[in-house]
Amino acid sequence: MATQYYYGTGRRKSSVARVRLYPGQGPFVVNGKPGDEYFSRDMDVTKALEPLQVVGADDRFQVSVVVSGGGITGQSEAVRHGVARALLEADPSLRPTLKQRGYLTRDPRAKERKKPGLKRARKAPQYTKR
Q1: pLDDT by residue (tens digit) across 102-129?
Q2: What is the CATH number that goes with domain 6-101?
Q3: pLDDT (tens digit, 9 = 90+) per residue, 41-82?
Q4: pTM for this model (two decimals)
Q5: Long-range contacts of 68-71 (CB under 8 A, 24+ apart)
C-alpha cells in the first residue's frame, strides 16, 4: 500500500469506522477482509461506498477500513460517514455535493436507554384495575 492516504472517522449508533483512502485503484478492504465478504448483503457494500460513486471517484481510491462496535447496518453507515469525511480531506471542493446528500452529517439516532419501572425504554407493565 502507498504511504500517503486521506483519513476520515465515521460513526453511527455504537459503530466507529476508521477509513483510509489511498490514491489509485485497489480493493475495498474492511477489517482485513474484502468488503463484499465482510458485508454479506450487497446493500451494505453499496451503502458504504455511496459517497465515492456520487462524486465519481470510485476508481480513483483504494479504501481500507477498520470498523468496530454495533451491528452490520450501523457499521456500513459508519463506513459511509468515514468515506465522506476522507473524501472531503482529499478534495475540499466536494463539500457541497456531499453535504447536500447528507453524508457529512453524523446521524444522532441511537437506542434509548431503559427507564426504571418500565420493561423497555417506553413500554410499561400491563395495568390491572383489580
Answers
A1: 999 999 999 999 999 999 999 999 999 9
A2: 3.30.230.10
A3: 999 999 999 999 999 998 899 999 999 999 999 999 999 999
A4: 0.90
A5: 68/15, 68/16, 69/13, 69/14, 69/15, 69/16, 70/12, 70/13, 70/14, 70/15, 71/13, 71/15
